[in-house]
Specification:
Elements (H helix, E strand, L loop, with lengths): L1 E7 L2 H17 L7 E6 L2 H13 L7 E4 L1 H9 L9 H17 L4 H12 L1 H13 L10 H16 L5 H14 L4 E7 L9 H9 L1 E9 L6 H15 L3 E2 L22 E6 L2 H16 L7 E5 L4 H12 L4 E3 L3 E3 L6 H11 L3 H11 L9 H15 L4 H10 L6 H8 L8 E2 L1 H15 L2 H11 L10 E2 H12 L3 E3 L11 E5 L8 E6 L19 H18 E3 L7 E3 L9 H17 L1 E10 L14 H11 L5 H15 L15 H10 L8 H4 L13 H21 L1
Parallel strand pairs: 1-5, 1-6, 2-3, 2-4, 4-5, 7-18, 8-14, 8-15, 9-14, 15-18
Antiparallel strand pairs: 10-13, 11-12, 16-17
Helix pairs in contact: 3-9, 4-5, 4-7, 4-20, 5-6, 8-9, 11-12, 13-14, 14-15, 15-16, 16-17, 18-19
Length: 715
Amino acid sequence: MAASLSLMNSPEDAWENVVRPWFERIAGRGLQNQAAAVVTASRSQAYFFRAQLLAEGKSLLGVKFLSPPQLREVLLRGGDLRVPLREHLRLLLAVTAEEFASTKRDEETLLIAKSIARDPDRFLRVLDELRGAGWNFDEIDLAGLREIAAGFEGHVRECGFTFIHAADRAALAYAQESRPLFSHLLLFGFDAAHWSLWPLLHSATVSAAEATVLLSDPRDEARDLDETWVGTWEETFGPADITPAAKTTSAASVAEALSVPAGEVHFLVGRDTTQQARAIVALTAKFLADRRCERLGILFSGPGGLPRLVATFLESARIAHNDGIAHVAPSALDDDAWRAWLELQRAPRLKPLFQFLRATNRQTFDIISVSQLEDILRRAYNNVLIDDIQLLSDYCASSPELRHGNGATRELEKIRFLPESASLTEFLSQTRTAFVTLRWKERWNELERLSRNWKDRVAPKFSKISYLRWVQELVGAPSLQRDDLGTHPYARVHLLTYAEAQGQPWSHLIFAGLNDETWPAFDTELAFVRDEQIDELNRQNKTLNRRASKRGRQGEGHWSVREGKTLLIGPNEQRQIRRRQMLNLVESVSAGIGATASLYSEATPSRIANPSEFFSWLYFTARGRGVSQQTLHLLEEQTRSWLKDWSPIDAQKVDSISVGRTRYAFGARRQLHPAGEYEFALRSSPNQEISLSVTDWQTSAALAGDRLDESLSRS
């Protein structure tokens, strides 16, 4: 195993000095038994490499492009480790929290346990980060949370599962004893934001005969985190080589000067999300008309209504793009009948029952029809004023006043209701009976496949609510979909999150949705922990990071993490990384920048939405003055005036051509002068003489005459 590290200042430097020579070397080696692999932090970076190589006519034969999850699958292939789905972990954590809440505890701890049972995902992320960084549950100060975490880990082991961080460390031990999986490996785009992936990337590097790792030069905004990241790689694989600059760059800080002239920075404020989306697409059309536009990125904080509207408007404008965010679409098994069944199981009341009967259009009733059953139940409800299904069924069976009451009771008995609490095996058995009655074979096959080999190991009883949430997550798992024109990975326009746009050169960037309220929440925020406890967790986070760090072998100033440890990325560290990412993106632009925001809040339409800190900084840097509410109103008026009645349909003709040149050519072809480039679509004379036969010339003249007559008749 031979690993070489390179420290880069910009994506252009990395491409010219390391990435392109690496691909040229791989292309010349021919096909081998061991594959060459490129692992990138995001798919967008892989698409950029592919586009560059295809444009230069370079071969990609024998090269695999892998994302981190795909890399993990390759490294663990052939092993006996079983990494559970997140849905399984959430169920086991909810089961543990319900067990904990059933015992007598103090009121605060009991409330915490109940909160975890209702929403286990947040606490699960905290446990993932803590164990992924190499720490055990003893580092949790709250005794109740520590006991829940320990019980949860015990349930996971009993089911035969292995946590993902433990699997990554096991892959490292396996790689050190096995033959290489890759002949050549290139790692690109990973920095301090990916500390949780350090064991996986370490395993991949050891699994390659030759590994090339590209690291980013740390900058002040997150220097401690990035320097420790680089130092850990250097401590493990030796010192990194500094890649020479591909082009001369200004020494001025980005806080003092932008990478583009101030006149190329555009600020658009929409009155609401729809108007902001229209403004983004209009600015996209304007940028595409710029001859310098090679790669245009539209960046969002994450999925939501704004990126969905922008993708829809781009589709209407017939602008090809790569929708890296996509939109969530329900699965084929998630229909009205499925959702109605879940709601009926959660609340066996009259209204959910009627919705379920209408959605399923059941044909299993032998005695009475669905409409008759609804009429009987309504009359029974009017008599008792209770909409509980079991009570109404008993009343129908015992009331002599209701006609066909006994028949309604027998029909209601055909609907299977799950018990309020049971073990996983009992729940699944009851579910199978209900699904067979409903002829839901596909849903049961999916549920049975995903619970096979471990369902019998969950002994404790738990609530129906937790079980139904697990079933809904498995059977109704949504998929990501894109519009027809949003599936072009090599298009000039890319819709991405801020993190996915890193490590690539851009000619134009549009920073969209720059409002404080739409900025994503930190992953480590806990809704069930008080503010003072969160402050304590932040202080503890810094303490653990100091304990995980050590001085490297290169001497003073060289820091790395201890073996088996990584750094914890808390809210403070996330803010530093986010600021560094935004400034890196500003520096990566070569032609134009756009920044958009909404004037009014989505949650409270009557309230002015504050712009984000980045929007204010960018506006001050480009315009030399701060952002006030008056400024926002003025920008909204200017945006509205600029858009006027513009619609995305108007941008259909604006994709890769210049509107100004098109209008000039239109007028030039209608002037009396000798034929030129606009008549024959030739900017210069052809290299060889073009000759036509008399027949071809007569045919062409006849066609031209017919078209002239047609145009005159229309006019």
